[in-house]
Amino acid sequence: MKAFVVDRYQKQAPLRLADMPTPELRDDEVLVEVHAAGVNLLDAKIRSGEFKLILPYRLPLILGHDVAGVVVKAGARVRQFKPGDAVYARVDDFRIGTFAEFVPVKESSLAHKPRNLTMEEAASIPLVGLTAWQALVEKAGLTQGQRVFIQAGSGGVGTFAIQLAKHLGASVATTTSAANAALVKRLGADVTVDYRTQDFETVLHGYDVVLNSQDGKTLAKSLRVLKRGGRLISISGPPDPDFGKEIGAPGFVRLVMRLLSWGVRRSARRLGVRYSFLFMKASGTQLQQITRLIEDGAIRPVVDKVFPFASTDEALAYVEAGRAKGKVVIKIK
């Protein structure tokens, strides 16, 4: 099969189009013919080696975490899916590889594609949808009447998280440029802060939850917009000791995580708020719940650009440049 691979860890290194063997199928997996693949900043970070401690992949590596496609083969223990089913998923860590013609997906990570979405729209959903769900529903327990600050509202996670937070009944503030203010308001943002002309720390106060996706400076400021007892959930780091335990990291890796997050955890304690790191996990069960929201019209995909398979490198560069409004997708079939 054709696939785009990483030969060595390096920032902005070009991916190589290669002929690779079709992956072997495990008993609890299905083989999906890839019709479309979502492109995420996570792909660029893995290529650059940022996650080598957490995810020690063997090279060469096929990139890609989001898939929408059709089941062509099912493992012996698979019961919920059969050949011909239209499906979508965020594939599991250490089984990534959706920038290819075929990818194996664990049954427990898979869901039937929303009936009202195209393959390209469906491929835009899993990683950002599950990230928003695990941050706002699982970790934060966001409820009606609470206030949440979601950073980078016009980005992939932001466009989904705003809609999910509004569905949950929360009041939403977000940062964006003036050019994208109308977009995030249509998605449900109640308060918009122009990051080019305003400092969100001077505008926002007393929030229950912050979803942080930016750098360390923004993280420090974000702690101060929370009310006492509030919670900051960061998807951009630093990883904390609880995350180290969750993934069963070796002792020296847990020590590194403890040291990296010591400053922000200390600041959070002083302010009477909580800090936690989220590295989202594949989950077919949660994706099924997201499917229902999409089919009911509560959430709609926001797709900026669809690139042809041959332009996978360009798609990844576009995402890495931070220009995308919503998601970028590669059309493979």
TrEMBL record:
UniProt cross-references to InterPro entries, sorted A to Z: ADH-like_N (IPR013154), ER (IPR020843), GroES-like_sf (IPR011032), NAD(P)-bd_dom_sf (IPR036291), YIM1/Zinc_Alcohol_DH_Fams (IPR050700)
Catalytic activity, EC: 1.1.1.1
Annotated keywords: Oxidoreductase
Keyword flag Nuclease: no
One Pfam entry name: ADH_zinc_N_2
Highest taxon in the source lineage: Bacteria
Coiled coil: none
Keyword Nucleus: no
MF terms in GO: alcohol dehydrogenase (NAD+) activity
CDD domains: MDR_like_2 (cd05289)
Segments forming domain Enoyl reductase (ER): 11-330
Enzyme class, spelled out: oxidoreductase
Name by which UniProt lists this protein: Alcohol dehydrogenase
Organism of provenance: Pelomonas aquatica
